[in-house]
């Protein structure tokens, strides 16, 4: 029965990929398709039977020889089809070879691995139009930014020394650069989400995902746009600013989770309450606004360059040193002061610093208070930016929601 189960899984995986390939080639007449639903099922069974024979006879030469022969058949079929249709795409041919391998892997007992790879393969095959559209939207500077991101994370990070230096025993090159990579990675997600979705589709998309890249940048951009807008358009812009501010709270939660998972249960409720209040205010404004008007695209700058990353690393070291000194010299009040001052310009650095300190001797309650203070100050600063830069009608909407968010955060600290 176990062998029958393996063969059944192999057949199911082949049919899964065959469904996608058959749908992709549905416009061709019978006999003109390279391979469809039935063929991919048979290919997977061929791989499974070859794998079973090799396993039972104790020689993988049978599997290797069968795969070699099948590969030659696939290449010949591909060349004949390309000669007739002048379509030299090799996706289906490669998918057929992979299906054979998946059948063999399933037959050898690695069912979970085979199933996971088959699902990912079918998904990638089905996402061809979407993936091609993403590539077409990708600019050269963004491609270079991706390579730089990989350089600092995959190449540079592993070779940095993972030990502390300096009189305060806080300068750890590996940990600091890991934090830089974390912030750059979160910003990348937000930037490319806006890039793929398109900012012209609405400020709500920009607010939600642009806030991951830079909520302050989104706030400034939408505030400037409000000067030339009136009425319901400003309500929509206010929604974008509020959503960008609300995105800061799950962003903080992710940072805490990476640096000190044990602190998450202490900060999650205040942060979630603040997020719910913020998003609730945005939803209320969104439902009461006129969303039919086409808005001007919002500019979200490329989130990664080498110099800004180095500047953030330097700023992070300064904040870590001030937080440590504030805690040592003035106890909790000193840390809270540093948190408030840091929150004026950036909430990430102080969040990472406090999370790191709570891994050592800083009480979780003090760490939670410091993070909420920084988030509250940063939220207030965004509201003030709208007041001084944006339209007055937009400003009161934003300030009403953000002040409610701050009040909810303070109440959560006092009650929880």
Automatic annotation (TrEMBL):
Keyword Hydrolase appears in the UniProt entry: no
Where is the chain membrane-spanning? Answer: 6-23, 35-54, 60-80, 92-125, 145-162, 174-193, 235-253, 268-287, 308-329, 366-389, 395-415
> InterPro entries under this entry?
DUF4010, MgtC_SapB_SrpB_YhiD_N
MgtC/SapB/SrpB/YhiD N-terminal domain: residues covered:
7-133
Q: What are the record keywords, sorted?
A: Membrane, Transmembrane, Transmembrane helix
Q: Which residues form the DUF4010 domain?
A: 181-390
Q: What is this protein called?
A: Uncharacterized protein
Species of the source: Pseudidiomarina salinarum
């Amino acid at each position: 029965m176990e062998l029958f189960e393996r063969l059944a899984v192999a057949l199911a995986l082949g049919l899964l990929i065959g469904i996608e390939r058959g749908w992709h080639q549905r416009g061709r007449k019978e006999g003109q398709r390279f391979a469809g639903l039935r063929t991919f099922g048979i290919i997977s069974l061929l791989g499974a039977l070859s794998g079973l024979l090799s396993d039972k006879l104790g020689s993988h030469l049978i599997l290797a020889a069968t795969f070699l022969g099948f590969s030659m058949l696939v290449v010949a079929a591909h060349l004949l089809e390309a000669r007739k249709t002048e379509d030299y795409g090799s996706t289906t041919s490669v998918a057929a070879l992979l299906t054979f391998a998946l059948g063999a892997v399933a037959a050898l007992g690695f069912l979970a691995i085979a199933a996971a790879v088959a699902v990912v393969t079918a998904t990638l095959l089905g996402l061809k139009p979407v993936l091609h559209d993403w590539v077409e939207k990708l600019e050269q500077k963004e491609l270079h930014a991706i390579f730089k991101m990989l350089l600092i994370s995959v190449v540079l990070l592993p070779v940095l020394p993972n030990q502390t230096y300096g009189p305060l025993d806080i300068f750890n090159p590996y940990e600091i650069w890991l934090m830089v990579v974390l912030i750059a990675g979160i910003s990348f997600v937000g930037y490319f989400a806006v890039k793929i979705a398109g900012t012209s589709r609405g400020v709500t998309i920009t607010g939600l995902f642009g806030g991951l890249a830079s909520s302050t940048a989104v706030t400034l951009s939408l505030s400037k746009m409000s000067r030339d807008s009136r009425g319901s358009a400003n309500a929509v812009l206010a929604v974008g600013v509020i959503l960008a501010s609300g995105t800061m709270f799950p962003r903080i939660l992710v940072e805490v989770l990476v640096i000190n998972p044990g602190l998450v249960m202490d900060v999650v409720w205040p942060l979630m309450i603040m997020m719910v209040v913020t998003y609730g205010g945005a939803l209320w404004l969104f439902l009461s606004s006129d969303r039919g008007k086409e808005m001007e695209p919002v500019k979200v700058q490329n989130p990664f360059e080498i110099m800004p990353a180095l500047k953030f690393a330097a700023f992070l070291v300064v904040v870590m040193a001030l937080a440590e000194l504030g805690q040592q010299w003035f106890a909790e009040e000193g840390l809270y002061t540093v948190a408030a001052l840091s929150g004026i310009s950036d909430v990430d650095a102080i969040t990472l610093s406090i999370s790191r300190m709570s891994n050592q001797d800083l009480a979780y309650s003090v760490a939670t208070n410091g993070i909420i203070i920084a988030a509250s100050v940063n939220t207030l600063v965004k509201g003030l930016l709208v007041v001084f830069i944006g339209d007055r009608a937009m400003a009161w909407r934003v300030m009403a929601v953000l002040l409610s968010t701050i009040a909810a955060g303070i109440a959560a600290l006092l009650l929880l």
